[in-house]
Amino acid sequence: MTREGRPDWDTYFMDITRLVAKRSTCVRRAVGALIVRDKRILSTGYNGAPSGIRHCGDVGCLRKKMNVKSGERHELCRGIHAEQNAIIQAAYHGVSIRDGALYCTNLPCVICAKMIINAGLARIYYESGYADALSQDMLDEAGIERIKLGNP
Hints:
This protein is of the alpha/beta class.
């Protein structure tokens, strides 16, 4: 918080990211993402089934049925990750996110990390880790800064 009682920018954006996560339709983990550049919100995303596809809450969780552990076999899921949705939404609306920052409730998986690298995002702010060492290795190699923010 700033001395005026207003949240600092990181707190402000992470608060919004947590609100975005509440739109998640995933039955295992609600994740929110926000892409920001120059203190302006460019795009948001949350995890869940693609537009027009039945939600996991309606048809059941494929990963749960198959006993897939968190951080493994990302392709075995009906949902799309929050980070992917934020990047896709920016592309869909023709918004460049190059040199932007990603605020996310969780550290991205390796699939999202690869998208973040190729989208040209510069840094990631996150609250919780994620069981994906390859993601962290690739983000390190790409020089993408990661900043862990405290939980509310």
